[in-house]
């Protein structure tokens, strides 16, 4: 540790897992120290996003029409996340530079205060990084909608293709027996599409709410924790005596080193004591419970995500094959479509009996 004036006396504070100095991290192989002033996040993960070859994929250029807009949005979100990560890194780098500059001034007051302010700035950068991780999780939730849209597109295309073929035959060969077969296929396609569309609606509503609820909660956390840090940063600056001195007079020795350390202790305590529930106090009680519960169960919800609509469509296609076995005609096709519609409203696949009614 390259601190002056006895900082080594407070080495016992390392048990708090908190940095009292930016300079204490010099020589660890990085360009700057990383503050750990209670930087735990309730909405963001702690791991940094790793490099992925998926980012080099050309598949975004061939997205189905239905999912194309959301795919662009998700790609833009990735750029936003990178910007916040870069901002966090720059903040930590600036904090280190401030601390090192203050040390070389030869002024004990500036040296101590700049170092402690550097700790605050570094923690501001850590909060920015936590926010970027939370945005990345929110972006991951939006991908569930995109994937669902991609799985629904073939169902729409298949139904439209059969309908176009029926219209063509009615115009050219209205008496052909192929019309009956195509109409039965259209009934099956409509049943499959009804289920897929219902799944899309359900998942879109659920995941849209989940994604942006997580983002807004992360925004609240970042804003309030950075506000806490900024207030303690202002307290640190008040310890620096900027009263002009007459040339030749010496500055009064810095006597507030202990108070500066206490301010960092206070900042750590305030960050640790921060609770999301207190930020939601203005919400109705039922909304508080819903939001808090959704935040706590975010990771669990990811692991218990519903089966993809693509799988549901495949299951429905298998079940609706009973139309061929039962030889359903025009009237039966209408009943099958109605039964499938009822099942789709509930977001479930129709039973073989319903499809073949």
From TrEMBL:
The keyword Transit peptide does not apply. The keyword Phosphoprotein applies. Keywords: Coiled coil, Phosphoprotein. Residues 294-324 have a biased composition (Polar residues). Residues 36-50, 335-344 have a biased composition (Low complexity). GO terms for biological process: eisosome assembly; endocytosis. Gene3D superfamilies: Arfaptin homology (AH) domain/BAR domain. It holds the Pfam family Pil1. InterPro entries: AH/BAR_dom_sf, PIL1/LSP1. Residues 18-50, 281-357 are annotated as: Disordered. This is Sphingolipid long chain base-responsive protein PIL1. It comes from Lasiosphaeria ovina.
């Amino acid at each position: 540790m390259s601190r002056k004036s006895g900082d080594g006396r407070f080495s016992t504070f390392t048990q708090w897992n908190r940095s009292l100095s930016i300079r204490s991290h010099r020589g660890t192989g990085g360009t700057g120290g990383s503050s750990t002033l209670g930087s735990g996040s309730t909405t963001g993960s702690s791991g940094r996003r790793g490099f992925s070859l998926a980012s080099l994929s050309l598949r975004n250029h061939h997205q189905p029409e239905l999912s194309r807009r959301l795919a662009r949005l998700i790609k833009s979100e990735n750029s936003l996340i990178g910007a916040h990560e870069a901002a966090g890194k720059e903040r930590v780098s600036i904090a280190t530079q401030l601390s090192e500059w203050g040390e070389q001034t030869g002024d004990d007051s500036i040296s101590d205060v700049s170092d402690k302010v550097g700790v605050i700035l570094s923690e501001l950068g850590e909060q920015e990084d936590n926010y970027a991780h939370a945005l990345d999780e929110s972006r991951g939730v939006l991908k569930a909608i995109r994937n669902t849209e991609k799985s629904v597109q073939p169902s729409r295309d298949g139904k439209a293709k059969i309908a176009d073929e029926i219209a063509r035959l009615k115009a050219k060969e209205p008496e052909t027996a192929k019309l009956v077969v195509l109409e039965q296929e259209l009934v099956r396609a409509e049943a499959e599409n009804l289920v897929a569309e219902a799944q899309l609606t359900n998942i879109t509503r659920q995941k849209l709410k989940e994604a942006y609820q997580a983002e807004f909660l992360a925004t609240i956390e970042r804003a309030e924790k950075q506000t806490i840090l900024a207030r303690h940063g202002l307290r640190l600056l008040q310890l620096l005596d900027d009263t002009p001195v007459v040339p030749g007079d010496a500055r009064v020795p810095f006597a507030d080193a202990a108070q500066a350390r206490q301010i960092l202790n206070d900042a750590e305590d305030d960050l640790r004591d921060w609770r999301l529930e207190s930020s939601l106090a203005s919400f109705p009680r039922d909304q508080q419970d819903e939001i808090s519960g959704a935040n706590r169960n975010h990771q669990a919800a990811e692991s218990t995500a519903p089966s993809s609509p693509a799988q549901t469509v495949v299951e429905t296609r298998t079940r609706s094959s009973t139309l061929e076995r039962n030889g359903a005609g025009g009237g039966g096709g209408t009943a099958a479509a109605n039964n499938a519609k009822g099942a789709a409203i509930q977001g479930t696949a129709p039973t073989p009996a319903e499809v073949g009614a």
